[in-house]
Amino acid sequence: MHIVFTDLDGTLLDHETYSLEPARPALAALKQRGIPLILASSKTEAEMRPIAADIGIDDPMIVENGAGVVNLPDGAAGEDGVYARLRAVLDDMPRDLRQNFAGFGDWSDEEVAQKTGMPLETARLARMRRFSEPGLWNGSEDERDAFRGILDQHGFQAVQGGRFFTLMPKTSKADAMRKVAALYREMSDEPLVTVALGDAPNDAAMLEAADIGIIIANPAHAALPETARERAGFIRRSEKPGPAGWNDMILQLLV
């Protein structure tokens, strides 16, 4: 039994247009064979639900860059209340540290749209968070270290991305993939083969952890470096970018 985990932006979705149309044949082939498709993204559940509905799937989703897993199989319960606990940790921070961080929960929909370039409706969905808090840090390095230390004491971490300083549980897309795969293994007598597709550094651990990793070309940024697992044949690369490359690689896998 195969189970496919995929990043969205720049992988299944076109980097510029966010269209998945070129991947329709492969998506249909997965559905016809009953192969679960697990969306794995930095987006919130609210942002990802319309994409899943467009594809026509109701599989689990790895949301907020691996900070949470929703829609688990067999009625398994996902962890809840994470965002409220994270915001409580922020509220209890010493004022001289707390004032250096402002996150999506501190901003209005309009402010998030302005800071991200998102349309207003997308910004509204991006603020519907359950597991993590992206934001901006304005303090010194020493203050940031102290801020991170308090988060660490409460089981959270702060990850600096290209734009945002994101507060989240100590987990990743790769950890979430293992969690979902373990649940499917419990539900099936067949051997499980995990397949992961991604294009960016935040996908690298997931690609390395999968039985088969597929790097989707994305001319918008530097290619992921070659690793020992790629040299050993466990990781492949698409020639075409985005959903066209995704389509080719999935159809090749299913032959």
TrEMBL record:
Keywords carried by this UniProt record: Hydrolase, Magnesium, Metal-binding
Task: Give coiled-coil spans as residue ranges.
Answer: none
Q: Does the keyword Aminoacyl-tRNA synthetase apply?
A: no
Q: Any idea which GO molecular function terms this record carries?
A: magnesium ion binding; mannosyl-3-phosphoglycerate phosphatase activity
Gene3D superfamilies per the UniProt record, alphabetical: HAD superfamily/HAD-like, Putative mannosyl-3-phosphoglycerate phosphatase, domain 2
GO cellular component terms, alphabetically, are: cytosol
GO biological processes = mannosylglycerate biosynthetic process
User: Which InterPro entries does the UniProt entry name for this protein?
Assistant: HAD-like_sf, HAD-SF-IIB-MPGP, HAD-SF_hydro_IIB, HAD_sf
Q: Does the keyword Transcription regulation apply?
A: no
Report which superkingdom the organism of origin falls in: Bacteria
Q: Which NCBIfam families match?
A: HAD-SF-IIB (TIGR01484), HAD-SF-IIB-MPGP (TIGR01486)
PANTHER family given in the database record = HAD SUPERFAMILY HYDROLASE-LIKE, TYPE 3, PHOSPHOSERINE PHOSPHATASE
Q: What is the name attached to this protein's record?
A: Mannosyl-3-phosphoglycerate phosphatase
